[in-house]
Amino acid sequence: MAGGGGSLTMDWSKFFSMGGYALYVWGSYGISFVLLAGEVLMLLKRKRNLKRRESPQPATSETRLNTSLQGIQ
Amino acid sequence: MSNRRINWYKYAAPANFYPLAGKMIPFFAVPAAILFIIGIYVGFFVAPTDFQQGESYRILFIHVPAAWMGMFLYVMLAIYAGIGWAFNARLASMMAQAISTTGAIFTFISLVTGSLWGRPAWGVWWVWDARLTSTLILMFLYIGFISLQSSIDDVRRADRAGAVLALVGVINVPIIYFSVQWWNSLHQGATITAKSFKMAPSMLAAMLIMLAACWIYSIAVVLVRVRYIIREREQEAPWLAEAAV
User: Fold this and answer.
1) Which pLDDT tens digit goes with each residue over B140-192?
2) CA-based, 20 to 30 A from A29: which of A56, B14, B112, B200?
């Protein structure tokens, strides 16, 4: 809190200390970021799962039958 | 289209909406990311230190928008669920389901950040006052809606059950909103509308930019999610096999 306006590194350490509220401020933004980024990641995972399920897989005879039926449709 | 049977209309709605939603997503996702960056910048580097609360007030730039989104998204959820129930519109029910996750996340963010703000400001993590308790009930309503929907195998029956819960629970939203006026609350009143609360223009700007970012982000993720819900629910529909995915 003393003076300020010194070197750039001094300003950054002051910035990160958030006037003694670092835990609360960075905790809030950290949790918010993790949750929103987590939501986006879950949607990307869901997309991958959907693509995997929908893409024709010639692994078993059953899936081969399904894909051939889709071709007829 | 005109010579098809009338029940085709039901199937046409998601089929038409699916590609439209896909085209709309980038127009919300990109501005949301940009606005989040601008909002964080203004909130941390432009907005001055609050003379009463010090730096801890910067939590409010995420707390207030998250709390608003939690309430607003619940109202949207209830409207969509109600339309889906009353008019047997499947897409509206899917929208309600898509909104529920995002609304729950924002409500959770508002509770956690509010707690982290309250500890230095009030000296406590939590108090059982009207605003906080009604917001916790909102969280439980979201959880109840999500778990009720996932616990019923028949999706249309799940939609109806969810709609009943959503519409009964919507009464909680005005309770949250007016709780600071109706009851003697530790939580402060509305900041943006009150004339008594002095707020620097850059503080207001940061708050509104973050609100816009949260809003546009919500539209983007709900559109992405509703497309996946359509794909999961309409697996047998022939249009999905034809649509480029």
Assistant:
1) 999 999 999 999 999 999 999 999 999 999 999 999 999 888 887 778 776 65
2) B200
Using an 8 Å CB-CB cutoff, list chain A residues near B102.
39
DSSP state of B59: G
Beta bridge partners of B54: B50
Backbone phi, psi, residue B89, to 5°: -95, 110
Residue B74 has pLDDT above 90, yes or no: yes
Residue B49 DSSP symbol: P
Using the Cβ of B202 and the Cβ atoms of chain A, whether some distance falls under 8 Å is answered with: no
Mutate which: B56, B125, B233, B239, vs A, most A CBs within 10 A = B56
pTM of model > 0.95: no
**Please, which residues have CB within 8 angstroms of residue B36's CB and are 6 or more apart in sequence?**
B210, B213, B217
Cβ within 8 Å, pair A28-B49: no
Q: Which amino acid is at B90?
A: R
- Distance of residue A70 Cα from the nearest chain B Cα, in angstroms: 8
Burial B124-160 (b: 16+ CB within 10 A, else e): eeeeebbbbbbbeebbebbebbbeebeeeeebeebbb
> Per-domain residue ranges for chain B?
58-189+205-244
